[in-house]
């Protein structure tokens, strides 16, 4: 059974950090590119970061470059999004996604506020 389970969201002050984790199961994780998306109220879901299944090549949306880092552990079947220097504009629900599949996690809320 396929599952993607996110954890690590919460409330943080501007300038703070959070680490999001995604535990995957039920598909060939090490052959699948993985990504994090986010969706803020009233806005479309957007790609935040992607990591390929080959050579761990990464891609980021411009607004998070230099602040967020995506990584993966194929043995543990985990994808991690390290978020630093968080800004109020980063407030959204964050979703883990297995690229080129219909698999999504349920999301975890990140709120950046003073």
What is the terminal separation in angstroms? 40 Å
Q: Biggest sheet, in brief? A: 6 strands, mixed
Order of helices and strands: EEEEEEEEEE
Oligomer: single chain
What's the count of strands? Answer: 10
Structural class: mainly beta
Q: If strands are numbered along the chain, what order do they take across the biggest sheet?
A: 2-10-9-4-5-6
- Tertiary shape: globular
Low-confidence stretches: none
Q: How many H/I helical runs?
A: 0
Mean pLDDT: 97
How would you sum up this structure, described in words?
The structure is a single chain. By secondary structure, this protein is mainly beta. The strands form two sheets. It has a six-stranded mixed β-sheet, with no helix packed on it. Strands 1-3-8-7 form a four-stranded antiparallel β-sheet, with no helix packed on it. The N and C termini lie far apart (40 Å).
Map the helices and strands:
Layout: E1 3-7, E2 10-12, E3 18-25, E4 34-39, E5 46-51, E6 58-60, E7 68-73, E8 78-83, E9 92-98, E10 108-112
Parallel strand pairs: 2-10
Antiparallel strand pairs: 1-3, 3-8, 4-5, 4-9, 5-6, 7-8, 9-10
What is shown here, in short?
With 114 residues, the chain is mainly β. It has strands at residues 3-7, 10-12, 18-25, 34-39, 46-51, 58-60, 68-73, 78-83, 92-98, 108-112.
Considering the chains and any ligands shown, give keywords for the structure.
0% helix, mainly beta, six-stranded mixed beta sheet
């Amino acid at each position: 059974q396929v599952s993607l389970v996110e954890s690590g969201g919460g409330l943080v002050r501007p300038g703070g950090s959070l680490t999001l984790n995604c535990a995957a199961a039920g598909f060939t994780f090490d052959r699948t590119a993985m990504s994090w998306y986010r969706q803020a109220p009233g806005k479309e879901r957007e790609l935040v970061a992607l990591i390929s299944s080959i050579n761990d090549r990464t891609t980021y949306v411009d607004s998070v470059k230099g602040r967020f880092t995506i990584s993966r552990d194929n043995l543990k079947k985990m994808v991690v999004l390290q978020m630093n220097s968080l800004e109020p504009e980063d407030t959204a629900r964050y979703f883990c996604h297995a690229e080129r599949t219909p698999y999504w996690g349920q999301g975890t809320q990140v709120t950046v506020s003073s």
